[in-house]
Amino acid sequence: MAEMPADMLAHNRGLIEDFRANGAPPGRQLLLLTTIGRRTGQQRTSPMMYVPDPSTSGRLLVIASNAGATDHPLWFRNLVADPHVHVEVGDESYDATAVVTEGAEYEALWAHIAASYPFFVEHQSRVERTIPVVALERA
After folding, report:
1. Which of 29, 51, 125, 131 has the fewest Cβ atoms nearer than 10 Å?
2. Is residue 18 in some structural domain?
């Protein structure tokens, strides 16, 4: 597994700046997700990997693995509190609703993600929490 940067906030600021200036790095499924801070009410932008939803054209999935940390990532907590988000991907920018998948839908999506990206299985093996899969649906 790749080593995490010592200063993740600085690393993410650099990724966001580079993404907005040059787009996603070639070969990376990267998007910027802007949520509203559940405590501050301020916009918070996070760069993250996405997976196209295999069952629904145009819908994107983000995985709240937090690299296998015991807690959910802050962006996930924010979108649970307010599911209205903003997505920047490729040359598109749009508002969306974040839907935390559940039940049979979650199981099918997790199976697809696990088969395509085995490192998420490794992340899940390190934590007791179920790693959420979030669907980003255009508003």
Report:
1. 125
2. yes
Check which CATH number belongs to the domain holding 48 and give it. Answer: 2.30.110.10
Q: Which tens digit of pLDDT belongs to each residue from 61-92?
A: 999 999 999 999 999 999 999 999 999 999 99
Residues spanned by the domain of 114: 8-138
- H/E element holding 21? helix 8-22
* Cα dihedral 45, 50, 52, 55 sign: negative
| Residues 6+ away with beta carbon under 8 Å from 49 | 28, 29, 30, 31, 62, 63
List, in order, residues 6 or more apart from 97 with CB less than 8 Å away: 83, 84, 85, 136, 137, 139
Q: How many domains does the chain have?
A: 1
Tokens 């200036």 sit at which residue? 21
- DSSP letter for each residue of 76-103: HHHHHH--EEEEEETTEEEEEEEEE--H
